[in-house]
Hints:
mainly alpha
Amino acid sequence: xxxxxxEGGISQTSPRFKARVAGEVYRLYFLSAIFAQLLASHLSRxxxxxxxxxxxxxxxxxxxFGVNPGRWREQAGGVRESRTxxx
Length: 87
């Protein structure tokens, strides 16, 4: 695939076509923003339930498998060292 403008492509399309495409994209964005607000009241219960389930699974994972303290300290130590090099 070559990006040569002489082969055609987006660089040789008319400004009118680009404006029409941009207008359609803007219209889709506008409609999606309206529908998102309308659907938010109907979907909020499900989104909140999904968040509760996700948090519960994370808590369960941490209770069962825990955290490797050695690896945690190793990664935290690397962050501290990189900060001291910058300062």
